[in-house]
Batch of 2 targets.
Target 1
Amino acid sequence: MSFDQRQSPAGVHTAAHPPGRMCPFCSAPAAAQFCGSCGRDTTAPRRPCVKCRRMVPSSERTCWNCGAVFKSDMRWKIPLIVFLFVLAFIISILLALVK
Amino acid sequence: MARFKDPNVPAAAFQPYLEPGEQLRHWAYGVKQPSMLLIVPLFFLAILPGAIAVALLTKEYIVGLTDRRFIVLRFKGKSINVQEVLEYPLNNLPPVKASTGGLFTHINISDPAKPFVAKFHRMGMPGNREHGMAIEAALTGKAA
């Protein structure tokens, strides 16, 4: 049985969001796209805070709950990648000199 | 080869993100690699650092199709440490392109606010291909 066959017409939510939906940020009931309590878009991309684990919109750089600052993974990945390439070149030059 | 031997492990990761009464129908594991325009020069410069760089720059996802939404979890690690959550209501989907080839199911959601592109290898987890094709069918309206 396909997904479409299992979806009964009565089960399709015609409203923007089904009842019982909570804002992922402030946990207030949020039937609409924008939370009536905190005003945030409840469908926006979000990420958990590393300190307090509360959800924070990805567009915000600090946690609204604990104030923790989000840091990009690229902060350490790019220098590491550059370092690996530099190391590879140094090793290849040393091997060429030894030969 | 498989990232997850037990498909219930990625399925369980969706539980904190489901709404009351929402049911997870299909889920799949996928990745987004950096552009080939970056991969080729990196491998050309040095193979081993290039491979490490590609691995570091590859993003891992599990996606779930529920009766209401298409949910994307970007994660790190074997224990599925969720880094970001994206969701797309099924009754208001942005333009979706999806296709299945011999190895991969590709899903591309062209949402200007939250674009999503990933590919799902058939060996990613048991049933990854079937789940990927069911998600493709639901998102594009094609027959499964």
Note: Chain B touches chain A through 37 residues (CB under 8 Å).
Target 2
Amino acid sequence: MRQELGGRAAVAGVGMTALSRGSGRSELELAVEACRGALADAGVGTADAVLSYHMNDSVGAVQVARALRIEPVGWHNDISGGGTQCASILGDAAMLIASGVARTVLIYRAMNGRSGKRMNVASIGPQEAFTVPYGMAGPIPLFALAAQRYLYDTGLTEEHLHAVVAQSRDNAAGNPRALRREPLSLEDYLAAPFVSTPLRNVDCCQETDGACALVVTGVSRAPDAPRIHTVVRGGGSGCSTMDVADDVTRIFSGYVAPRLWDESGMSPGQVDVPVLYDAYSWLVPRQLADFGLAEPGDIGDYLLKRAHARVNPHGGLLSEGYVHGLNNVAQAVRELRRAGGVALVTGFGGSYGSAALIERS
Amino acid sequence: MSPYAPYWEACRRGELVIQTCTACAHRIHLPAADCPRCGSTALTWASVLGHGTVHTFTVVHRSFVASHRGREPYTLAWVDLPEGVRVFGSVVGCAPEDVRIGLPVTLTFEDDLPVWRPA
């Protein structure tokens, strides 16, 4: 354990609402349902700290704490950000536990991502002054520009992107929560409409209404629960800074993966459950290579052989739904409860993001 | 004043300008108030030659900018300039399917915006 937070906190509870494209409910109602589910699942009664992350599209921690009768509340925070936060928020919680600031931390993400405020027009930063006049806004064309160059640099093709999406659909087939469960043939993939080349609509995750919550507590309170081993967060120049980046295809994993292995003392071969942030299909091979889970030179064959079948066993953000990655973390916990082992969870925000290793022996 | 103002003024004259740091000779774009490399605020503006190479591109089939809905498909690109900077713009004057990474392009203007056409 090279990080002082490592091995001190465990994910004791998971809660989720149904995922839909039209919840008909407020973000507060969604958050409260998911939080109650997680608290009941954890069996720890209540929490003294509440954390969330959002992009001004949700309900704040104070309101959720009050609705849950967590009064007075201890440490509580609304963290600004989206998918980049879904792994590192485990670190925020573990730091509160390891330092003695909190005993039990409730984490949630609640959004009406389809029927309410949609991510496809979310700001991509100051460069928008130069891109919007040309008709570019939101994350999809930004990450399409990176994807185009990624395919060019690696020699991967639409056949490989199909393998990512089709495997996601196959993995989701047995997941009743998933918004997309039907098989996706290569023919159907190629017939799907482009949003922004090379990304078709099926290369992008499901815009989703729903909420997910986790309960993190000290390992003495939840001795059998999956433990937070190592969490890293960082980033730098890359697809978020295409004006100056040497490599416009570089994503967060290029920065955080070496630190994850260094600070954990673990190696890629020890990962049993890779749960990768798959907001776009091409992020899967890019992360497999960056985290050392597949050889970069072999990634095309790897995908066509479906060697990535173990990635995102629930279908991920591409098929289950998109609760800004927290639903991926929930699945990692479910997998470790079932079979034990080590799970890798990741959070993407362009060339900034986070990753965490959680384990249960 | 916004560091962007001289850039947009030049566009209205039909010029694409970038900054050069007088302290370390670093070329700067997107426009900045100080040099990202050395921090100097002594920056000058100069026009580029007007040719470049497509670094990456995307053909937008579904726009998320209201003013551009109904104008799809259109092509957006980052273009590498021999001056040592990368600029954003659209590629015009050819079919979207003819745009490639590495395509040589030449500067032109549409509605006071610098855009690129195949060289």
Note: The first helix of chain A runs from residue 27 to 42.
